[in-house]
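Data's thin. Show one?
=====
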Amino acid sequence: MNCVKSRQTIEEIIKKSRFIGVIIPCANENEVLLNLKQLYDEHPNASHIAYAYRIKTDHGMVYRFHDAGEPAGTAGKPIFQHIEGKELINLLIAVIRYFGGVKLGAGGLTRAYANTAKQLIEAAEIGAYVELVNIRLTLDYKQMQPLEYLLKKLEGQIIKQEFSGQVQLIIRLPAEQLNTLLQSFPGTVDYLPASKIPL
């Protein structure tokens, strides 16, 4: 399984219609929905915003595709087939279309959406999927600097932090690095499923 490292956008004109493709890494369905809302806000006058996504969850793979008013099977599914074909997970691909006045027909639409998805995937930085875990950790203030230093080495990140008597942290890091973190910072750790992470 593979995943994309960062957001990427491409654009092309096909028979006067403008197609804008966006590929976005998403850790969970909540992130997918937030990104879709942002795309709808950015493109209020688009004729169609077709999309597909595939997310690995604790309960298996979740995927959806949506034709966004295009003829059934001509937009969302061709996008999804490229996601599945490249064994990509934890991403959203959306293709925004501004209709240019020339009808493409079902075959032309299918090719346009599929080709946009294919070009996006080719342009994206793709890496092997690394399983991440989310944990809640409570530390003293003096432990923050050593923790931040260690997280850089372990390719982890602080997602959320709250300062009160102690520092409450939510951390995301590769599952294989968890033991290293816990040896350096022993204490009570709560595991948080991705769906429970506050944004």
Observations:
- The chain has a mean pLDDT of 89.
